[in-house]
Specification:
It is a single chain. By secondary structure, this protein is of the alpha/beta class. It has one domain: Metallo-beta-lactamase, Chain A, CATH 3.60.15. It contains 4 helices and 12 strands; from the N terminus they run αββββαβββββββαβα. The strands form 2 sheets. The protein has a 6-stranded mixed sheet. The longest helix is centred in the C-terminal third of the chain and has 11 residues.
């Protein structure tokens, strides 16, 4: 029998860039972008901020059905129809048995994701009870001290987000059972960044292959 983290890892599918599919008893997509397959229809879609490589109505339309709940900051709301929930950092909501804590995501000393823009990350507690933190597009920020997660999905590509060294610092603060690098290989960042992140982390790291 798989331990809970190994079982959770089988449910986490990296779709490239910041996009993930969490395929447990509820099907959850986070920041779907350039999805090249019809995919499983979503129970929940989470969007971190309004940049087009994260907030992509063309991708969402293939993944939603009538009851799909789309969660996003207010800056994205006018791009979608259907069941839409707008959120801000500090919010907690429960949808279809899945608890979602909304946390800040922003740059420090960079212009790309200012705090006032309202970008977010999410801590998703699955029906199975595993807490998965998707950091969104963010730098290493003080609020990460408060994050409690079993699995952390952290950007490592630099320029627009943390680089590998900063992401490793974040992982070492959060102390998840497993860390997974993201935000590399598409818009910015390389496999080398993911490997550097693994070298610097004091926690277990899994570098996923892209599933499209």
């Amino acid at each position: 029998m798989l331990d809970p983290i190994s079982a959770a890892l089988k449910q986490i599918h990296w779709l490239g860039h910041d996009a993930f599919l969490i395929a447990g008893r509820r099907v959850i997509y986070i920041d779907p972008y350039k999805i090249e397959f019809a995919g499983e229809v979503a129970d929940i879609i989470l969007i971190t901020h309004d940049h087009p490589d994260h907030c992509s109505p063309d991708d969402v339309k293939w993944l939603r059905k009538g009851e799909t709940v789309i969660v996003m900051p207010p800056s994205c709301a006018d791009k979608f129809k259907g069941v839409v929930r707008t959120v801000k950092p500090g919010d907690t909501l429960t949808i279809k048995g899945v608890t979602i804590d909304v946390v800040p995501a922003y740059n420090v000393g960079k212009p790309f994701h200012p705090r006032e823009a309202g970008g977010v990350g999410y801590i998703v507690t699955s029906v199975e009870g595993i807490r998965i933190y998707h950091a969104g597009d963010t730098d290493l920020i003080p609020e990460m001290e408060q994050v409690k997660a079993d699995v952390a999905l952290l950007p490592v590509g630099g320029i627009y987000t943390m680089d590998a060294a900063e992401a490793a610092q974040a992982a070492n603060k959060i102390k998840p059972k497993l860390a997974i690098p993201m935000h590399w290989g598409t818009v910015v960042g390389s496999r080398q960044d993911a490997e550097r992140f693994r070298e610097l982390c004091a926690v277990e790291v899994k570098i996923l292959k892209t599933e499209k």
